[in-house]
Amino acid sequence: MLTLARPAAPAHVVWALGVAQTVGWASSYYLPAVLAEPMAADLGLSPVWVFGAFSFAMVVSSLVGPWAGARIDRLGGRGVLALSNLVFAAGLAGLATSQGPVTLFLAWAVVGIGMGIGLYEAAFATLARIYGPAARSPITGITLIAGFASTVGWPLSGLMLAEWGWREACLGWAALHLALALPLNLSLPKGTQLGRSANPGAMADEGTTSPPRLALALLAFVFAATWFTSTAMAAHLPRLLEEAGATPAMALAAGALIGPAQVGARLLEFGLLRRFHPLLSARIAAACHPVAALILILVGGPAAAAFALIHGAGNGILTIAKGTLPLALFGPEGYGKRLGWLNAPARALQAGAPLIFGAALTAWGPEAVWITAGIGAASLAALLLLRRSGP
Protein backbone atom coordinates (compact mmCIF):
# COMPACT_ATOMS: atom_id res chain seq x y z
CA MET A 1 0.00 0.00 0.00
CA LEU A 2 1.25 3.45 -0.89
CA THR A 3 0.65 5.93 1.93
CA LEU A 4 -0.20 9.46 0.87
CA ALA A 5 1.54 12.48 2.36
CA ARG A 6 -0.61 14.44 4.77
CA PRO A 7 -0.89 18.22 5.08
CA ALA A 8 -0.63 19.97 8.42
CA ALA A 9 -3.97 20.73 10.02
CA PRO A 10 -5.13 24.31 9.33
CA ALA A 11 -5.80 26.40 12.41
CA HIS A 12 -9.50 26.77 11.57
CA VAL A 13 -9.95 22.98 11.70
CA VAL A 14 -8.40 22.79 15.16
CA TRP A 15 -10.48 25.71 16.42
CA ALA A 16 -13.72 24.42 14.91
CA LEU A 17 -13.27 20.96 16.37
CA GLY A 18 -11.99 22.32 19.68
CA VAL A 19 -14.99 24.63 20.18
CA ALA A 20 -17.43 21.89 19.14
CA GLN A 21 -15.77 19.53 21.63
CA THR A 22 -16.08 22.18 24.34
CA VAL A 23 -19.84 22.33 23.77
CA GLY A 24 -20.05 18.53 23.77
CA TRP A 25 -18.15 18.04 27.03
CA ALA A 26 -19.78 20.99 28.81
CA SER A 27 -23.30 19.77 27.97
CA SER A 28 -22.75 16.15 28.97
CA TYR A 29 -19.81 15.17 31.20
CA TYR A 30 -19.84 18.44 33.16
CA LEU A 31 -23.63 18.93 33.27
CA PRO A 32 -24.56 16.93 36.41
CA ALA A 33 -22.20 18.87 38.67
CA VAL A 34 -24.47 21.92 38.31
CA LEU A 35 -27.89 20.53 37.36
CA ALA A 36 -28.12 17.19 39.21
CA GLU A 37 -29.51 18.58 42.48
CA PRO A 38 -32.16 20.94 41.02
CA MET A 39 -33.07 18.26 38.48
CA ALA A 40 -33.56 15.68 41.23
CA ALA A 41 -35.47 18.07 43.49
CA ASP A 42 -37.92 19.01 40.73
CA LEU A 43 -38.49 15.36 39.82
CA GLY A 44 -38.93 14.33 43.44
CA LEU A 45 -35.89 12.03 43.33
CA SER A 46 -32.63 11.66 45.20
CA PRO A 47 -29.59 13.08 43.34
CA VAL A 48 -28.32 9.49 43.32
CA TRP A 49 -30.90 8.79 40.60
CA VAL A 50 -29.50 11.54 38.39
CA PHE A 51 -25.91 10.41 38.86
CA GLY A 52 -27.02 6.83 38.28
CA ALA A 53 -28.63 7.87 34.99
CA PHE A 54 -25.43 9.70 34.07
CA SER A 55 -23.39 6.57 34.82
CA PHE A 56 -25.79 4.65 32.57
CA ALA A 57 -25.08 7.19 29.83
CA MET A 58 -21.35 6.46 30.10
CA VAL A 59 -22.01 2.73 29.75
CA VAL A 60 -24.10 3.43 26.65
CA SER A 61 -21.28 5.57 25.23
CA SER A 62 -18.84 2.67 25.65
CA LEU A 63 -21.13 0.43 23.59
CA VAL A 64 -21.57 2.77 20.62
CA GLY A 65 -17.95 4.02 20.48
CA PRO A 66 -16.56 1.15 18.37
CA TRP A 67 -19.38 1.54 15.83
CA ALA A 68 -18.67 5.26 15.51
CA GLY A 69 -14.95 4.64 15.11
CA ALA A 70 -15.47 2.04 12.39
CA ARG A 71 -17.78 4.37 10.49
CA ILE A 72 -15.24 7.19 10.71
CA ASP A 73 -12.59 4.80 9.33
CA ARG A 74 -14.77 4.15 6.29
CA LEU A 75 -16.38 7.51 5.60
CA GLY A 76 -14.58 10.17 7.62
CA GLY A 77 -15.77 11.87 10.76
CA ARG A 78 -17.64 14.97 9.62
CA GLY A 79 -20.98 13.22 9.28
CA VAL A 80 -20.62 11.27 12.54
CA LEU A 81 -19.70 14.39 14.52
CA ALA A 82 -22.57 16.34 12.96
CA LEU A 83 -24.93 13.49 13.83
CA SER A 84 -23.69 13.64 17.42
CA ASN A 85 -24.88 17.25 17.71
CA LEU A 86 -28.37 16.22 16.62
CA VAL A 87 -28.34 13.33 19.10
CA PHE A 88 -27.04 15.54 21.90
CA ALA A 89 -29.78 18.09 21.19
CA ALA A 90 -32.44 15.37 21.23
CA GLY A 91 -31.12 13.93 24.51
CA LEU A 92 -30.94 17.33 26.19
CA ALA A 93 -34.46 18.14 25.01
CA GLY A 94 -35.50 14.80 26.50
CA LEU A 95 -33.93 15.79 29.81
CA ALA A 96 -35.79 19.10 29.71
CA THR A 97 -39.12 17.29 29.35
CA SER A 98 -38.45 14.31 31.66
CA GLN A 99 -41.06 13.66 34.32
CA GLY A 100 -39.65 10.74 36.32
CA PRO A 101 -36.92 8.10 36.54
CA VAL A 102 -37.90 6.25 33.35
CA THR A 103 -37.83 9.29 31.09
CA LEU A 104 -34.73 10.55 32.93
CA PHE A 105 -32.81 7.36 32.15
CA LEU A 106 -34.05 7.29 28.57
CA ALA A 107 -32.94 10.88 27.99
CA TRP A 108 -29.51 10.24 29.52
CA ALA A 109 -29.19 7.14 27.33
CA VAL A 110 -29.65 9.35 24.25
CA VAL A 111 -27.05 11.76 25.64
CA GLY A 112 -24.81 8.71 26.12
CA ILE A 113 -25.13 7.87 22.42
CA GLY A 114 -24.05 11.43 21.67
CA MET A 115 -21.06 11.03 23.99
CA GLY A 116 -20.06 7.78 22.28
CA ILE A 117 -20.12 9.25 18.78
CA GLY A 118 -19.20 12.87 19.46
CA LEU A 119 -16.51 13.32 22.12
CA TYR A 120 -12.73 12.93 22.06
CA GLU A 121 -12.48 9.43 20.58
CA ALA A 122 -14.56 10.42 17.56
CA ALA A 123 -12.70 13.73 17.21
CA PHE A 124 -9.31 11.99 17.39
CA ALA A 125 -10.43 9.42 14.81
CA THR A 126 -11.62 12.21 12.53
CA LEU A 127 -8.24 13.92 12.68
CA ALA A 128 -6.38 10.64 12.10
CA ARG A 129 -8.61 9.98 9.09
CA ILE A 130 -7.75 13.36 7.59
CA TYR A 131 -4.11 13.84 8.61
CA GLY A 132 -2.80 10.33 9.32
CA PRO A 133 0.39 10.22 11.42
CA ALA A 134 0.50 14.04 11.35
CA ALA A 135 -2.62 14.15 13.57
CA ARG A 136 -0.65 14.36 16.84
CA SER A 137 -0.41 18.16 16.85
CA PRO A 138 -4.09 18.85 16.04
CA ILE A 139 -5.13 16.25 18.64
CA THR A 140 -3.13 18.21 21.20
CA GLY A 141 -4.63 21.45 19.88
CA ILE A 142 -8.25 20.43 20.35
CA THR A 143 -7.56 19.14 23.88
CA LEU A 144 -6.02 22.53 24.69
CA ILE A 145 -9.24 24.27 23.65
CA ALA A 146 -11.70 21.72 25.07
CA GLY A 147 -9.67 21.62 28.28
CA PHE A 148 -11.65 24.72 29.20
CA ALA A 149 -15.00 22.88 28.94
CA SER A 150 -15.54 22.92 32.69
CA THR A 151 -14.28 26.51 32.94
CA VAL A 152 -16.89 27.56 30.38
CA GLY A 153 -19.55 24.96 31.04
CA TRP A 154 -20.06 25.18 34.78
CA PRO A 155 -20.56 28.98 34.92
CA LEU A 156 -22.76 28.96 31.81
CA SER A 157 -24.91 26.12 33.18
CA GLY A 158 -25.11 27.99 36.48
CA LEU A 159 -26.14 31.21 34.73
CA MET A 160 -28.87 29.51 32.71
CA LEU A 161 -30.05 27.71 35.86
CA ALA A 162 -30.28 30.97 37.80
CA GLU A 163 -31.98 32.89 35.00
CA TRP A 164 -34.32 30.27 33.56
CA GLY A 165 -34.28 26.97 35.49
CA TRP A 166 -32.70 23.58 34.89
CA ARG A 167 -35.08 22.51 32.12
CA GLU A 168 -34.40 25.67 30.16
CA ALA A 169 -30.65 25.22 30.80
CA CYS A 170 -30.84 21.82 29.08
CA LEU A 171 -32.70 23.43 26.18
CA GLY A 172 -30.05 26.16 26.07
CA TRP A 173 -27.31 23.57 25.62
CA ALA A 174 -29.41 21.82 22.98
CA ALA A 175 -29.66 25.12 21.11
CA LEU A 176 -25.89 25.60 21.31
CA HIS A 177 -25.38 22.19 19.73
CA LEU A 178 -27.63 23.13 16.83
CA ALA A 179 -26.57 26.75 16.38
CA LEU A 180 -22.83 26.52 17.13
CA ALA A 181 -21.37 23.01 17.32
CA LEU A 182 -23.28 21.55 14.35
CA PRO A 183 -22.12 24.21 11.83
CA LEU A 184 -18.56 23.93 13.14
CA ASN A 185 -18.51 20.15 12.67
CA LEU A 186 -20.04 20.50 9.21
CA SER A 187 -17.20 22.87 8.29
CA LEU A 188 -14.60 20.10 8.77
CA PRO A 189 -12.96 18.41 5.78
CA LYS A 190 -14.63 15.20 4.69
CA GLY A 191 -11.50 13.10 5.18
CA THR A 192 -9.14 11.48 2.69
CA GLN A 193 -8.12 8.00 1.66
CA LEU A 194 -5.43 6.60 3.95
CA GLY A 195 -3.72 5.07 0.99
CA ARG A 196 -4.21 3.39 -2.36
CA SER A 197 -4.32 -0.35 -2.76
CA ALA A 198 -5.64 -2.95 -5.09
CA ASN A 199 -8.35 -3.75 -2.57
CA PRO A 200 -10.50 -0.70 -1.86
CA GLY A 201 -12.06 -2.44 1.12
CA ALA A 202 -8.78 -3.09 2.89
CA MET A 203 -9.00 0.02 4.98
CA ALA A 204 -12.38 -0.89 6.35
CA ASP A 205 -10.87 -4.14 7.64
CA GLU A 206 -8.28 -2.23 9.66
CA GLY A 207 -5.44 -2.60 7.23
CA THR A 208 -3.32 -5.61 6.33
CA THR A 209 -1.87 -6.45 9.76
CA SER A 210 -3.30 -6.51 13.26
CA PRO A 211 -1.45 -5.07 16.25
CA PRO A 212 -0.19 -7.57 18.86
CA ARG A 213 -2.95 -8.49 21.30
CA LEU A 214 -0.68 -7.92 24.29
CA ALA A 215 0.00 -4.33 23.19
CA LEU A 216 -3.73 -3.71 22.73
CA ALA A 217 -4.52 -5.21 26.14
CA LEU A 218 -1.84 -3.12 27.85
CA LEU A 219 -3.07 0.06 26.22
CA ALA A 220 -6.72 -0.70 27.08
CA PHE A 221 -5.65 -1.18 30.70
CA VAL A 222 -3.78 2.14 30.71
CA PHE A 223 -6.83 3.97 29.36
CA ALA A 224 -9.14 2.30 31.88
CA ALA A 225 -6.78 3.16 34.75
CA THR A 226 -6.54 6.76 33.58
CA TRP A 227 -10.31 7.21 33.29
CA PHE A 228 -10.92 5.60 36.69
CA THR A 229 -8.48 7.88 38.47
CA SER A 230 -9.46 11.09 36.69
CA THR A 231 -13.18 10.46 37.30
CA ALA A 232 -12.61 9.50 40.95
CA MET A 233 -10.60 12.68 41.54
CA ALA A 234 -13.12 14.84 39.69
CA ALA A 235 -15.87 13.55 41.98
CA HIS A 236 -14.02 13.48 45.31
CA LEU A 237 -10.94 15.71 45.17
CA PRO A 238 -12.10 18.38 47.69
CA ARG A 239 -13.23 15.71 50.14
CA LEU A 240 -9.96 13.77 49.75
CA LEU A 241 -7.90 16.89 50.46
CA GLU A 242 -10.02 17.74 53.50
CA GLU A 243 -9.60 14.18 54.81
CA ALA A 244 -5.85 14.67 54.41
CA GLY A 245 -5.97 17.77 56.61
CA ALA A 246 -6.67 20.67 54.25
CA THR A 247 -9.26 23.27 55.20
CA PRO A 248 -12.34 23.55 52.96
CA ALA A 249 -10.95 26.79 51.50
CA MET A 250 -7.59 25.15 50.79
CA ALA A 251 -9.30 22.17 49.18
CA LEU A 252 -11.40 24.36 46.87
CA ALA A 253 -8.41 26.52 45.96
CA ALA A 254 -6.36 23.43 45.17
CA GLY A 255 -9.16 22.00 43.05
CA ALA A 256 -9.19 25.19 41.00
CA LEU A 257 -5.57 24.45 40.02
CA ILE A 258 -6.47 21.24 38.18
CA GLY A 259 -7.60 23.00 35.00
CA PRO A 260 -4.57 25.29 34.67
CA ALA A 261 -2.27 22.35 35.42
CA GLN A 262 -3.87 20.30 32.63
CA VAL A 263 -3.61 23.13 30.13
CA GLY A 264 -0.02 23.89 31.13
CA ALA A 265 0.97 20.25 30.66
CA ARG A 266 -0.74 20.15 27.28
CA LEU A 267 1.20 23.24 26.22
CA LEU A 268 4.37 21.38 27.24
CA GLU A 269 3.28 18.43 25.12
CA PHE A 270 2.48 20.75 22.21
CA GLY A 271 5.91 22.40 22.47
CA LEU A 272 8.79 20.40 23.92
CA LEU A 273 7.44 16.86 24.25
CA ARG A 274 6.08 16.55 20.71
CA ARG A 275 9.70 16.14 19.59
CA PHE A 276 9.70 12.75 21.30
CA HIS A 277 7.67 9.59 20.91
CA PRO A 278 4.27 9.78 22.70
CA LEU A 279 5.32 6.85 24.90
CA LEU A 280 7.75 9.14 26.73
CA SER A 281 5.02 11.70 27.44
CA ALA A 282 2.63 8.99 28.59
CA ARG A 283 5.17 7.40 30.93
CA ILE A 284 6.00 10.73 32.55
CA ALA A 285 2.31 11.52 32.90
CA ALA A 286 1.46 8.11 34.38
CA ALA A 287 4.03 8.66 37.12
CA CYS A 288 2.45 11.96 38.17
CA HIS A 289 -0.54 10.71 40.17
CA PRO A 290 1.42 8.15 42.25
CA VAL A 291 4.03 10.83 43.04
CA ALA A 292 1.27 13.30 43.98
CA ALA A 293 -0.40 10.69 46.18
CA LEU A 294 2.86 9.92 47.99
CA ILE A 295 3.41 13.63 48.69
CA LEU A 296 -0.14 14.00 50.00
CA ILE A 297 0.18 11.03 52.36
CA LEU A 298 3.59 12.13 53.68
CA VAL A 299 2.86 15.87 54.03
CA GLY A 300 -0.92 16.00 54.50
CA GLY A 301 -3.15 19.04 53.99
CA PRO A 302 -0.36 21.57 53.27
CA ALA A 303 0.47 19.56 50.14
CA ALA A 304 -3.03 20.03 48.69
CA ALA A 305 -1.90 22.47 45.99
CA ALA A 306 1.10 20.31 45.04
CA PHE A 307 -1.15 17.26 44.75
CA ALA A 308 -3.60 19.10 42.50
CA LEU A 309 -0.88 20.52 40.23
CA ILE A 310 0.99 17.24 39.77
CA HIS A 311 -2.14 15.14 39.33
CA GLY A 312 -3.65 17.70 36.94
CA ALA A 313 -0.51 17.85 34.81
CA GLY A 314 -0.39 14.08 34.44
CA ASN A 315 -4.09 13.87 33.64
CA GLY A 316 -3.76 16.59 31.01
CA ILE A 317 -1.08 14.73 29.07
CA LEU A 318 -2.75 11.32 29.46
CA THR A 319 -5.88 12.72 27.80
CA ILE A 320 -3.77 13.49 24.74
CA ALA A 321 -2.06 10.09 24.94
CA LYS A 322 -5.43 8.38 24.48
CA GLY A 323 -5.38 9.74 20.94
CA THR A 324 -1.69 9.89 20.10
CA LEU A 325 -0.46 6.56 21.48
CA PRO A 326 -2.64 4.25 19.35
CA LEU A 327 -1.78 6.38 16.32
CA ALA A 328 1.98 6.19 16.98
CA LEU A 329 2.03 2.51 17.95
CA PHE A 330 -0.37 1.02 15.40
CA GLY A 331 -0.71 3.59 12.62
CA PRO A 332 -3.78 5.31 11.14
CA GLU A 333 -5.39 2.30 9.43
CA GLY A 334 -8.42 1.12 11.39
CA TYR A 335 -7.63 3.76 13.99
CA GLY A 336 -11.20 4.83 14.72
CA LYS A 337 -12.61 1.38 15.39
CA ARG A 338 -9.52 0.39 17.37
CA LEU A 339 -9.77 3.53 19.49
CA GLY A 340 -13.43 2.78 20.18
CA TRP A 341 -12.61 -0.71 21.44
CA LEU A 342 -9.60 0.47 23.44
CA ASN A 343 -11.72 3.04 25.27
CA ALA A 344 -14.82 0.88 25.80
CA PRO A 345 -13.55 -0.72 29.05
CA ALA A 346 -12.46 2.71 30.26
CA ARG A 347 -15.90 4.24 29.72
CA ALA A 348 -17.60 1.34 31.49
CA LEU A 349 -15.21 1.43 34.46
CA GLN A 350 -15.48 5.21 34.62
CA ALA A 351 -19.18 4.86 35.41
CA GLY A 352 -18.41 3.14 38.72
CA ALA A 353 -15.37 5.19 39.74
CA PRO A 354 -17.16 7.81 41.90
CA LEU A 355 -19.05 5.12 43.84
CA ILE A 356 -16.01 2.86 44.35
CA PHE A 357 -13.60 5.59 45.41
CA GLY A 358 -16.27 7.31 47.51
CA ALA A 359 -16.83 4.10 49.48
CA ALA A 360 -13.07 3.70 49.96
CA LEU A 361 -12.77 7.29 51.14
CA THR A 362 -15.52 6.72 53.69
CA ALA A 363 -13.87 3.53 54.96
CA TRP A 364 -10.19 4.54 54.93
CA GLY A 365 -10.02 8.32 54.78
CA PRO A 366 -7.01 9.77 52.92
CA GLU A 367 -5.43 6.31 52.74
CA ALA A 368 -7.92 5.59 49.96
CA VAL A 369 -5.61 7.46 47.62
CA TRP A 370 -3.34 4.40 47.68
CA ILE A 371 -5.94 2.73 45.45
CA THR A 372 -5.54 5.26 42.65
CA ALA A 373 -1.80 5.48 43.29
CA GLY A 374 -1.50 1.72 42.85
CA ILE A 375 -3.59 1.84 39.69
CA GLY A 376 -1.35 4.62 38.39
CA ALA A 377 1.80 2.64 39.17
CA ALA A 378 0.34 -0.37 37.35
CA SER A 379 -0.45 1.76 34.31
CA LEU A 380 3.13 3.07 34.32
CA ALA A 381 4.38 -0.52 34.39
CA ALA A 382 2.12 -1.34 31.43
CA LEU A 383 3.50 1.62 29.47
CA LEU A 384 7.06 0.50 30.23
CA LEU A 385 6.22 -2.89 28.70
CA LEU A 386 5.08 -1.26 25.46
CA ARG A 387 7.67 -0.72 22.77
CA ARG A 388 7.66 2.18 20.36
CA SER A 389 7.10 1.72 16.65
CA GLY A 390 7.09 4.04 13.71
CA PRO A 391 9.35 7.09 13.28
UniProtKB/TrEMBL annotation:
Keywords: Cell membrane, Membrane, Transmembrane, Transmembrane helix. It comes from the Bacteria. One of its GO terms (molecular function) is transmembrane transporter activity. This is MFS transporter. Its main location: membrane. It is a multi-pass membrane protein. The chain crosses the membrane at residues 48-68, 80-99, 105-127, 139-159, 171-188, 214-237, 249-268, 280-299, 368-386. Signal peptide: none annotated. One of its GO terms (cellular component) is plasma membrane. It is found in: Cell membrane. Residues 13-391 form the Major facilitator superfamily (MFS) profile domain. Coiled coil: none annotated.
